[in-house]
Design goal:
It contains 24 helices and 12 strands. By secondary structure, the chain is α+β, with helices and mostly antiparallel strands. A 5-stranded mixed sheet has the order 1-2-3-5-4, with helices on one face. The chain is elongated, with a radius of gyration of 37 Å. The two termini are 32 Å apart. Residues 174-239 form the Signal transduction histidine kinase subgroup 3 dimerisation and phosphoacceptor domain. Residues 279-369 form the Histidine kinase/HSP90-like ATPase domain. GO terms for molecular function: ATP binding; phosphorelay sensor kinase activity; protein dimerization activity.
Length: 783
């Protein structure tokens, strides 16, 4: 099917050119052998080149321009070179904006040089140059609009792929997040209780007041621990909402809390830290100071946060320990540095930790500056995007101005030199009026109704100028060519206006306004067609013109509504699929929280409540035992979280799926009540590279999971180094966001895909080693 699409249009052009060259149908005169050979050679080059316009558009444009030059010089009247139009459109669709602009300039330059050689310095040269400029501007503008649509679809596909990826990993990510939070609770709260209580028990004889302080600290910290654990198990439903308030104060309170434990701690940080990076800084500081409390008792520590080149640099450094650590040895979970690295990576940064030359310990982290004004970043992104989007509309507006002007100049070629010289001021006035009339189209997508009203208002500048400037009728009639602007304005209202049900007045108003404006221009000098205009002409002529233009504007309005409906339907599919993936991801995370909640209630919460109760009763020994018991239970839970259902014994994710897992997938669907049959797996999947096996599984999984409920068939065949996958009975997978996501996955594996409307999916993948297509989320084309 893709081959037919590539070659159908070039072959149609060849057939049309052949009909034009047929004796009696083509231009007058018999070409010589050299001229005919040149035309045939140009046709061959153009046809072969256009067949590759989807893969090498710039080279195809260069080849078609060479064919136009060859054919035009060989036989000017016998060769119609439409290849550059198609090639330039392909360049605009598939290449960035700077490439399109350069290609447009090169194409117009070649056409102008060819026209100058063929026509010479005559009056017709200017009209030919304007016609070619307007035509190529129109092709480039339409191609750029198509590229924007495809880029939007690709971005939506990547967004959906990211949502699907998040759905598959939601449980694992939530388990890791909870493990980090539990480690923070165990490392900071409970370890601090153990250290403080043990110190009070050792120094009870020399410092009796320390026991009361330790009990008060244990009660307060135990209450904070209960609150933190309740938040983790989902009892506080808004725990995961982002907090954009500055967190500098909370970090300073955290540092001051460690200072109250008897160690000198200093902190220097900005006062507007906010966002995920600030939350990561808080967790890293808490972990680093707790490690210093555990392993370097009594040593001074320093916390420093600086802004450097748009980044946040965090440094937590402590001096060597004054004495050997006591009381908390062996109570750590063994993943403090790992947890800090994970927290920094989750915020988009990196972390290093290691000893200092003096014998202390230093933790350094580099994180993105979350407090940087988001509006500046959004404005920069918007400027980049709008810079790309602003080409299509100005190109169409320029074409709507240049094409009518070229028609006017073409007609003026038949005038005598004296008439042209006398009408020159009037032609300049008409040129300016047509430009003003077409100028609002530049904003047709951003403000369609305002553009429509502006176009309707500027349409009356023509009649006003005819009366005020007394333009001759032979020049004033060129203003009628500006009706193309009204057509584009009606389309913009239908395709981009607010509320499709409220856009129906646009074609009616346009037809009536254009008819009245044309009548006013035609009758401005008191005559119609050289005859004196009577009262009936001012009534019948607008009625006749309105009836003539109304079907045209209605058809354009209907086309705009169809395009709008298609776009909104695609967006609705995307939003539904994205919301469904996010909902399933939320349910998976919620299930993981509920599973953890049961373990926390039994293993940790009861011991923590006992700790708080013992602190209130003033039993220091019981507080120490309860804190150690809760800390030990927490440590066991941390190890349990490292061995979830989807992870291996070392806490790592299980291996990626392979083609052999398709049997399990099909059996699962069959057990759910759907008839799914798999054929050719054993022979086709033999000795496949791991990347191809992952790609095969993901493609079949996405196709079968599109939502169809009927019977499906999956067939795998391997021939000459190519693996062919055929999936039938998947109507919902051959269109919409699922099909777009499959195209991205297949393209990542350097394969080809064919989606048949009947519900059949055909995929071809190279069976050799190719880059792994498991990365389903690619960078944005505008990044």
């Amino acid at each position: 099917m893709e081959t037919i699409r590539n070659w159908l249009l070039p072959l149609l052009l060849v057939a049309a050119q052949g009909i034009l060259l047929w004796p009696g149908l083509g231009p007058d005169g018999t070409p010589g052998g050299a001229a005919l050979a040149g035309v045939l050679c140009a046709l061959a080059v153009e046809t072969v080149a256009l067949g590759r316009r989807r893969t090498a558009p710039v080279r195809v444009l260069a080849a078609t321009l060479a064919a136009v030059v060859l054919g035009g010089l060989a036989w000017q009247d016998g060769y119609v070179g439409l290849g550059p139009l198609i090639a330039l459109y392909s360049v605009a669709v598939r290449c960035p904006l700077p490439v399109t602009v350069r290609a447009l300039a090169a194409t117009v330059g070649v056409e102008w040089l060819l026209a100058a050689v063929q026509e010479g310095l005559r009056a017709s040269l200017l009209s030919l140059m304007l016609i070619s400029l307007g035509t190529y501007l129109l092709c480039a503008g339409l191609g750029e609009a198509r590229r924007q649509w495809l880029a939007g679809r690709l971005s939506a596909t990547r967004r959906l792929a990211g949502a699907e990826h998040a759905r598959r990993l939601a449980g694992d990510q939530e388990r890791r997040r909870l493990a980090r939070e539990l480690h923070d609770v165990s490392a900071h709260h409970l370890t601090s209780v153990v250290v403080t209580v043990d110190a009070a028990r050792r120094l009870g004889d020399s410092r009796p007041a320390l026991a009361a302080e330790a009990l008060s600290f244990a009660e307060r910290t135990g209450t904070e621990t209960l609150t933190a654990l309740q938040r983790l198990v989902g009892l506080l439903r808004d725990a995961d909402r982002p907090d954009h308030r500055p967190m500098s104060g909370r970090i300073e309170e955290l540092v001051a809390g460690f200072g109250r434990l008897g160690r000198p701690v200093t902190a220097r940080l900005p006062d507007d830290l906010a966002g995920p990076s600030a939350e990561a800084i808080q967790g890293i500081v808490r972990e680093a100071l707790t490690n210093a409390l555990r392993y370097a008792p009594g040593a001074a520590a320093e916390v420093l946060v600086r802004r450097v080149n748009g980044l946040l640099e965090l440094t937590v450094e402590n001096a060597p320990p004054r004495s050997a650590p006591q009381g908390a040895g062996g109570l750590g979970a063994g993943r403090g540095v790992t947890g800090m690295r994970e927290r920094a990576a989750a915020a988009g940064g990196e972390l290093t930790a290691g000893p200092t030359p003096e014998g202390g310990w230093r933790v350094r982290a580099t994180l993105p500056d979350g407090a940087e004004p988001q509006r500046q970043l959004e404005d920069a992104w918007r400027r980049d995007v709008l810079r790309e989007q602003r080409f299509a509309d100005p190109a169409l507006a320029s074409a709507a101005w240049v094409l009518p002007l070229s028609c006017a100049l073409a007609v003026a070629e038949d005038w005598s030199p004296g008439a042209r010289h006398a009408a020159l001021p009037a032609l300049l006035a008409v040129t300016a009026l047509l430009a003003v009339h077409a100028l609002p189209l530049v904003w047709r997508r951003r403000a369609p109704w305002s553009v429509f009203l502006a176009v309707m208002a500027t349409a009356w500048l023509g009649p006003s100028a005819v009366v005020a400037l007394r333009l001759p009728s032979q020049v004033a009639e060129f203003l009628l060519c500006g009706t193309l602007v009204e057509v584009l304005a009606v389309y913009a209202v239908a395709a981009y206006g607010q509320g499709p049900g409220r856009t129906w007045p646009a074609p009616a108003v346009s037809a009536l306004g254009a008819a009245c404006a044309v009548t006013a221009v035609a009758c401005a000098d008191g005559s119609v067609g050289g005859e004196p205009a009577g009262p009936a002409d001012f009534v019948l002529l607008p009625f006749f013109l309105c009836a003539l233009l109304a079907p045209l504007f209605a058809a354009v309005w209907g086309a705009g509504l169809l395009v709008r409906r298609r776009r909104l339907r695609a967006l609705a599919y995307d939003e539904f699929a994205w919301a469904s993936s996010m909902w399933q991801a939320g349910r998976a995370a919620e299930a993981e929280r509920q599973r953890l909640a049961a373990s926390l209630r039994d293993a940790v919460l009861e011991r923590t409540r006992a700790l708080v109760g013992a602190a209130r009763r003033g039993d220091l020994d019981e507080v120490a035992g309860a804190a150690r018991g809760a800390l030990g239970a927490m440590r066991e839970m941390l190890h349990g979280l490292g061995h979830g259902e989807d992870e291996g014994p070392a806490g790592r994710l299980s291996p990626s799926p392979t083609a052999a897992d398709l049997e399990t997938l099909c059996r699962t669907l069959c057990s759910a009540g759907r008839d799914v049959r798999l054929r050719g797996l054993a022979e086709a999947a033999r000795d496949l590279p791991p990347s191809v096996q992952v790609s095969v599984y993901r493609i079949v999984e996405a196709a079968l999971g599109a939502g169809d409920l009927g019977p499906a068939r999956v067939t795998l065949r391997r021939r000459r180094g190519t693996l062919r996958i055929t999936v039938t009975g998947v109507r919902l997978a051959v269109a919409g966001p699922v099909a777009e996501r499959l195209r991205v996955q297949v393209a990542a594996g350097e394969g080809r895909i064919l989606c048949e409307p009947a519900g059949t999916l055909r995929v071809s993948l190279p069976a050799g080693a190719v880059p792994a297509p498991v990365q389903e989320v690619s960078p944005s084309p505008y990044a």
